[in-house]
Amino acid sequence: MKTKIREVREARKLSQGELADAVGTTRQTITSIEVGKYTASLPLAYKIAHYFGLTIEEVFDFSDLDEEQA
After folding, report:
1. Minimal CB count within 10 Å: which of 8, 13, 25, 45?
2. Which long-range contacts link 16-25 to residues 24+ away (Cβ below 8 Å)?
3. Count of structural domains within the chain
4. CA–CA gap between residue 28 and residue 24 (Å, rounded)
5. Burial class for 49, CB neighbours closer than 10 Å (0-12, 13-18, 19+)
6. Structure pTM?
7. d(CA 70, CA 47)
8. In which domain, by residue range, is 23 found?
9. CATH of the domain at 65
Protein backbone atom coordinates (compact mmCIF):
# COMPACT_ATOMS: atom_id res chain seq x y z
CA MET A 1 0.00 0.00 0.00
CA LYS A 2 1.32 3.42 -0.92
CA THR A 3 1.44 6.12 1.72
CA LYS A 4 2.35 9.76 2.01
CA ILE A 5 3.88 9.28 5.45
CA ARG A 6 7.43 10.00 4.33
CA GLU A 7 6.42 13.18 2.48
CA VAL A 8 4.32 14.51 5.36
CA ARG A 9 6.90 13.51 7.96
CA GLU A 10 9.77 15.14 6.10
CA ALA A 11 7.75 18.31 5.42
CA ARG A 12 7.29 18.61 9.19
CA LYS A 13 10.96 17.82 9.82
CA LEU A 14 10.23 14.72 11.88
CA SER A 15 12.47 11.68 12.05
CA GLN A 16 11.02 8.21 11.77
CA GLY A 17 11.85 7.71 15.44
CA GLU A 18 10.02 10.86 16.50
CA LEU A 19 6.90 9.82 14.59
CA ALA A 20 7.13 6.30 15.99
CA ASP A 21 7.34 7.63 19.55
CA ALA A 22 4.40 9.96 18.95
CA VAL A 23 2.11 7.16 17.72
CA GLY A 24 3.34 4.39 20.00
CA THR A 25 5.21 2.14 17.61
CA THR A 26 8.81 1.48 16.54
CA ARG A 27 10.99 3.24 14.03
CA GLN A 28 11.29 -0.07 12.17
CA THR A 29 7.51 -0.20 11.77
CA ILE A 30 7.42 3.32 10.35
CA THR A 31 10.26 2.41 7.97
CA SER A 32 8.43 -0.73 6.82
CA ILE A 33 5.19 1.18 6.23
CA GLU A 34 7.01 3.90 4.28
CA VAL A 35 8.67 1.42 1.93
CA GLY A 36 5.55 -0.69 1.48
CA LYS A 37 6.76 -3.83 3.28
CA TYR A 38 4.10 -3.56 5.97
CA THR A 39 0.50 -2.37 5.93
CA ALA A 40 -0.48 -0.43 9.02
CA SER A 41 -3.34 -1.73 11.10
CA LEU A 42 -6.43 0.46 11.14
CA PRO A 43 -5.73 1.75 14.67
CA LEU A 44 -2.13 2.62 13.74
CA ALA A 45 -3.21 4.24 10.47
CA TYR A 46 -5.69 6.34 12.43
CA LYS A 47 -3.03 7.38 14.96
CA ILE A 48 -0.62 8.42 12.21
CA ALA A 49 -3.24 10.38 10.27
CA HIS A 50 -4.61 11.97 13.45
CA TYR A 51 -1.10 12.96 14.56
CA PHE A 52 -0.68 14.88 11.30
CA GLY A 53 -4.19 16.35 11.49
CA LEU A 54 -5.19 14.51 8.32
CA THR A 55 -7.71 11.84 7.39
CA ILE A 56 -6.60 8.26 6.80
CA GLU A 57 -7.43 8.69 3.11
CA GLU A 58 -5.11 11.70 2.88
CA VAL A 59 -2.19 9.64 4.20
CA PHE A 60 -2.86 6.15 2.81
CA ASP A 61 -3.62 5.26 -0.82
CA PHE A 62 -6.30 2.59 -0.91
CA SER A 63 -6.53 2.39 -4.72
CA ASP A 64 -4.57 -0.89 -4.72
CA LEU A 65 -7.25 -2.46 -2.54
CA ASP A 66 -10.01 -1.28 -4.85
CA GLU A 67 -8.29 -2.98 -7.79
CA GLU A 68 -7.90 -6.26 -5.86
CA GLN A 69 -11.62 -6.40 -5.07
CA ALA A 70 -12.72 -5.76 -8.67
Report:
1. 13
2. 19/48, 19/51, 22/51, 23/47, 23/48, 23/51
3. 1
4. 12
5. buried
6. 0.87
7. 29
8. 2-69
9. 1.10.260.40
